[in-house]
Write a structure and sequence with these properties.
Two copies of one chain form a homodimer. Chain A has 162 residues and is an alpha+beta fold. Helices cover 28% and strands 36% of the residues of chain A. Chain A has a single domain, classed as Gcn5-related N-acetyltransferase (GNAT) (Aminopeptidase).
């Protein structure tokens, strides 16, 4: 597996699993019917943001991450990031590899911390992964997320200083 | 004091204290050198957001607030808001009146909660005001804000369910 900067040519490989994950409505605070152009603008970030893909040896896109300043001005030293792994390619360590990559990027860019704004508490795999990569749950917004199967569940804010 | 929806005609009265507050860099996570067009786009929100002004009996703009969905999709029932009171008009209850107005608006629009993403911990007047209006500090991002006088200080996330 290799992680490299995504180009516009990667978007057609990202969009199918982006759409599948967002339509499911279980993990992302994006509109479930998000149209393709809005999805592309949301995910494919120009500098100072960055978008990467994790690719297999044969070039297959396994997942993607975007990273960006989470705040402006006096809080612009806090980075943010989002992750999507193709559900058909899960369980291969793609999320962990992307998470580690994004943390290295943020440290290299001079950020002092990373904040995840909205981690759905029923997304326990992600919560455990981010904890293992050094993040703490600093708050849970009670009933912050309407889950299509579980109703209102908590929305974690996770944070890590470098 | 009256609170009413802001129009483009109000912007020239808002911009001087917006600029003064943002240039000071002590309370807002906006770039301190934010240019006027970016400031106007940031503050004067179209629906589903809304911007209001608090005006004195003679029509003088004392302060302003903007309110909006804080998240999309499954978390779109959480509202957000931002407040600015003209420093030359502080101490008259303008912030409290705007806060109460914004909470009423959010409840009336069907939101189920309100989240403030970034309240600088040294802005103790604001912290106390939001607490008195029912908000809790659900997290403090340690060293989340670089204050021009105090260095790195905490950034509170405040939350209230309705």
């Amino acid at each position: 597996m290799q992680i490299r900067t995504a180009t516009e040519a990667d978007w057609p490989a990202i969009w199918p699993f982006f759409r599948r994950i967002v339509e499911a409505g279980e993990t992302y605070t994006y509109p479930r019917d998000m149209a393709e152009p809005a999805a592309r603008r949301t995910w494919m970030l120009p500098p100072p943001g960055r978008t990467v893909v994790a690719v297999d040896d044969d070039g297959t896109v396994l997942g993607s991450a975007k990273m960006n300043p989470n705040h402006m001005g006096g809080a612009s030293h806090i980075a943010g990031a989002s992750f999507m792994v193709d559900p058909d390619r899960s369980g291969k360590g793609v999320g962990r590899a992307l998470g580690a990559h994004v943390l290295e990027w943020a440290k290299g860019e001079g950020y002092r911390a990373m904040q995840f704004n909205a981690v759905v508490e029923t997304n326990t795999g992600a919560v455990a992964l981010w904890k293992s990569l050094g993040f703490e749950i600093v708050a849970t917004l009670e009933e912050g997320f309407q889950h299509p199967k579980h109703g209102y569940v908590g929305l974690h804010i996770m944070y890590q200083r470098f």
